[in-house]
Every structure is written in structure tokens, then in C-alpha cells.
Amino acid sequence: MDYCLDVLEGRLLAGKLIKLACLRHLQDLKKIGNNNFPYEYSADKAQGMVNFAQMIPDVSADKVLPLAKFQKFIYAMIDGWIDTETNGARFKTVYLSMARTNSKTQIASSLALRDFLLGMPVSSRQIVEASNTNEQIKTLYNYTRKAWHALVKTKWFKQLKDIVVDNSQEMRIDSSNTFLKKFSSEGTTGDSVHASTTIFDEYHLQRSTDYIDSFSSGNVQNPTAKVIIISTAGTDPRVPMREDYTAYSESIEKGNLDNEVLFLCWEQDKDDEAFKPETWIKSNPLMEVPAMEIKLRAGMLTERNKQVAAGNLPKFLVKNMNRWQNAKKNSYVELSSIEEAVIKEFNMHKKSCYVGFDASLANDDTSLVFVFPYEDDKSNNKYFVYQHSWIPTKMAGGIEAKSKQDAINYQHAEQEGFCTISSNRFGTVDQDQVYNWMMKFIEGYKLNVKAFCYDQWNTGTFVRMINNQFEDVVPLLAIRQGAKSLSEPTKFVQDNFYQGNIKILNDRVMKAGLSNAVLTSKDNGILIDKNMRSAKIDMVDALIDAFYEGMWHFTEFTNEKEEGKDNKNPFEGMKQEDIDQYYLKNNAF
Q1: Which of 123, 136, 266, 535 pairs as cysteine with 176 (C-beta 3.0–4.6 A)?
Q2: Helices 460-470 and 576-588, packing angle to 10 deg
Q3: Which part of the chain is the Terminase large subunit-like endonuclease domain (predicted)?
């Protein structure tokens, strides 16, 4: 409780998420005894874990060092809260995150070692230390072994010297059928393991939950079982840890975080705090120790200046500020700009909009984007963007494989209304279905479509249907896919995200597309691209197509009629052989 009071009363500087975690702890203490709150807090159990951790000599210093307040807080939260119905642990899932070099490995090894030596159940305990690669888990496992070798020399544990067997692969107590083993996703899964404690290090690198699920699925009957995720933030916003971070952050802010989830995230509140060293304790809680504050600050200043000089500030933000970043080289939209663009709702009824369309080829998605220009309550020009995508499954071999390949949970996105998964027996996108959905959407909201903008390739059937419906009513703009046509809207979209003028819903398909897009230079202009084959940017292509005309909404300019051209004709200016090739491609589709 001391740490919580120090944080909330301002004696220790902390970020918003840790303040909320401290507030949650104090509020939950007041709930104890309520019929609808089946948990209690055992100060004795919390102190027991703290006492154990304090017995372990520091591996680097080879002597016992006092624990920092934040370390005691972590141990107390994990061990102190009890489920009164099962007498087991309250928190089945623990999300623990902070910047590098802040004793994450020490904390993880202490938790693993205590559960291995003194945990529950009395026998057949299975402690798992896992990570992405053999090399990564070796660091945590070797630290745990060294901690044990130091602990067994103390008067409290020397009697266990001949009972515990340890080697480079595992630690065992044969008399109680207990083990502590290291695992990596490069090796075997945990399907045959019934882990009582699973600690997953560097979780930000996992692209799916399959591996960690293989451990948690075997412990459902163990009331003391828990999964502890311990990791710094990462550079890929599409991964499961980022999804957990977003969900937990929103839930703890609303006060409705799952009662069985412990969410402790030490991070800077804003990216610009990289230039405010006096705030760095927010992501580096070890700085509460004066000697460590001096050491950490000096090293981090050097690292920050080096990364800034090299143009790699996102690298510093991730590793040393614990800030999630879209750290691809030449990222189109910064992750912070994407998150700040999210709003809860927008009334699309009877609004004017610009429609962008990008059709799929093979494994690509098909996307429709609607851009709604509007003025906010201060008469500032803004744009709300809504998208819907159609997801083919043929090339991937099913929606589960497609979701894993693209790092997007399409099934959840479909439930949320942001995409439609192919349902025909071929696993392809049916343009009739896309057309019918679009017409229902336009008619349902009574939209005033100002222009329909599309990439001219592979859209023949769709455009013919649109032309029949909207001829002489809505401009149909076939947009050439090159820097000459797209450079200006591409830059317009990027600038307006940065300036906060574009708003979106909490749409995982859109956020993934924006995160995947990178900028490339071509023909004295810029275009968007992706840096890996599986990265989906189709809705971003449709978005830029829509802004090709939509960016002029608040002006007197338009791209509808270029001098000497009729953009309603998608083949205007094309050679006959190009037109023939287009129809060959379209028929193949």
C-alpha cells in the first residue's frame, strides 16, 4: 500500500496507467466483504513473497540488496490477492511491462524460483519459463539458476542443496515430482504441460497467442495457476501483446478491467517525454533508487542522443521509454497519430461522402472506404473515415491461417462489422456481394455520394454496376496508380493524420493497414507501399483514392474534370493493347 500512496499522493512520479493500477488496488481493498467481490487481500502472503525475494542475493552484485518499492508492489499484488471461492490466486493473467534494464529478469526469476521451491500445489508443480527463441529464454533461465545457486548458500535454503537437481535444461525436485523448465517457440509446444506458473519473456515478439495458449490450456483445473507476461513494448502494433495492451488500458481507465487480470505497465505518457529526463521514472521505475537514477539517466541520455542523431528515435522510445511504436523505416502514419484519431462514434446519417475502392488480386483484401468531411464544434475542417473490407481465404487455406498470416483477427473484425470473410466455396471475393453491401450501406444511411474513386485495374464488373446506378449523378473517377496522381492525396492524408484532422473508429483492419503502410519515393513523388508481402494495405489504397477527390471538399478545386479528359471513362488515354490486357486480367479473376 505504501507504493500506491506514494504514487497517488505525488511523492513518486508515475504514469497514468500505474496511477490507475494503484487506484484500483485501493478501491478493491474497500470492496472486500461485498457479496459480488469474491476476493480478499492477504498482507501475510504478500509479505511472504517480498521476504523470499529479499533473501535472494543479487546475481550481479553477489550480495543481498534491498528491494525497491515498485518491486515489493509487484510481488504483493501477484501473491497478496486471493480468490476466496478457490483459495487460489486471484490474478490468473499478469501483464507486467517496463523499459529495459529495470529488473524484469530479476523479478521474473524470483517469482519462478519461489513457486518452484515453495509454491502450490504441494506436489507436481510445473513451472515454465518461455520465450520466442532458445537464446532469449536462456537469459532468464540462466539467471534463475544463478539465483538458486546464490540462495542455496544461505542458511534458510542450504538444506535443499541435495534435493534440487539442476542442469542447463531444467531444475527438478524429484521427491515432489516438481520441475522448472525452459521452453521456446522454436522448440516444442506446451500441449503436454500442466503449468502451475508460466512466465513468458519478450512476449512482444509473438505474432499469435497459439504458443502461450498451449501452456495456459492445461492448467484450467489448478486454482493457483497463473500466466505472467513480462516484456517491454514492441515495434509491431499488430501483435497480440499490443492488442492486450490496448484492451487493458481502455478497461482500467473505464474501471472495468477483468477481476482476474493484473495490468501493471510502467510507460511514458507521451512520446515527447523522451526529451524530459525528469519524467523517465514513469517507464524506468528503478529510478526510485537514487544510485540507479544517476546511472540510468546518464546511460539513457547517451543512448537517446545517439538514436536521435541516427534518425532512430522510435527505437529509444520502445526500449527505454516503453512506448509502442510503428518503428518501420519510413512509416506512413505514426502509431500515436493512429491511436489519437480513434473516436467512439460518428453520425453518418444523411452526410456527404467520397468513396474509394480497391479490388483484390489473389490474396489481397477488397476494400471500400468512405470519407466524410465535416466541421467540428469550433468550425475546423475534419474528416471521418469508415471502411469495410472483404477477406479472401483461398490462398491462405482458411480464415485462421489468413488471420495469422496478416496478424489481424478477422473473425473479431467481422463481428465488429468492419469486414466480411469470404463465404463462397472458392474462398474468393464476390464483387456482386461487395456492390450489394455498398448499395445497402449508402441507402441505409441516405448518403450523398460526391464521387466514387477507384483503381482502374480489376474493377471492370464492379464499375459497370456503379455506372449503371450512378451515371450522370455521381462522378466516377478512375485514378491512375502512380506518383503523378497519388502523391498529393498521399501527403494530404499523412499530414491530416498528424494534425489530428482525420478521425476513425476503433477498427483493427484500418489500424493494421495504416500501421503496415510505408512511404516510398518514385518519379519525384511519393507512394505508399508495404515492407513485407503479408502486410495488408489495401484499405489504405482505397483511402487515398477517396481523398484524391475528397481533399478538395472545402475548396473550389476538383479532380473530376481534368483539362481535356473525362475521368468517367476508366480507359481514357490507354492504348488498345492495355485495354485488351485489362479485360484478360478481369476475366481471369
Answers
A1: 123
A2: 100
A3: 264-549
